[in-house]
């Protein structure tokens, strides 16, 4: 365990029998997340395997038309996100690929995607003491929305926003490529007790950020010195597994802080779903 700055910790990690393990037991990791701290678990996946995930996602997106209509939260789709969200008024510009129905994909693409989403799914279950598989569940219940997000060069970003703590509890962001090589700017930032934590430059390919899900967070912009193009695959790529009921109550428009009050009164016990 290494302290990078206030509220910012890294842990060594590895992949073992298809599961993600860290240098600390899962309960201790969740305690660090809930205190709260931004935790980066280092060196989980090898970079070459993650490049395959990017390449397979790109190949799929080239033969799949961009979705123009609203999300249905049931099918595989990719979309240019370029708007200001209704409730939180968070501006955003990125390209997401949401795999809501992995069994409907070609078997080789399924296998490639599950090489990251499988371990991420099992890791989330271990951290939160749940046993929820990927895929749709009974009506009204939350389910996973595996997503590969591309932040192109030249001005992509995601403005400050937050989520309800439950049912997700802990957000997972896996870096699929390398800062300083594949992209030179942009990363996820957080605020804890009036302290800004910028992870830009601290997350290598194969590292995974863990964060308490109701922390305000954002993605800082890729440099405007580069030329922007939706068609250029350069830029930051990440994998995430949001867990929510898309027809449930959206996050409130007010930020869930003053943080100090929120954290002091928060129920830190993991909630089964
Ligand atoms: Fe978010």
Automatic annotation (TrEMBL):
SUPFAM superfamilies: Clavaminate synthase-like. This is Prolyl 4-hydroxylase alpha subunit Fe(2+) 2OG dioxygenase domain-containing protein. It comes from Spirosoma terrae.
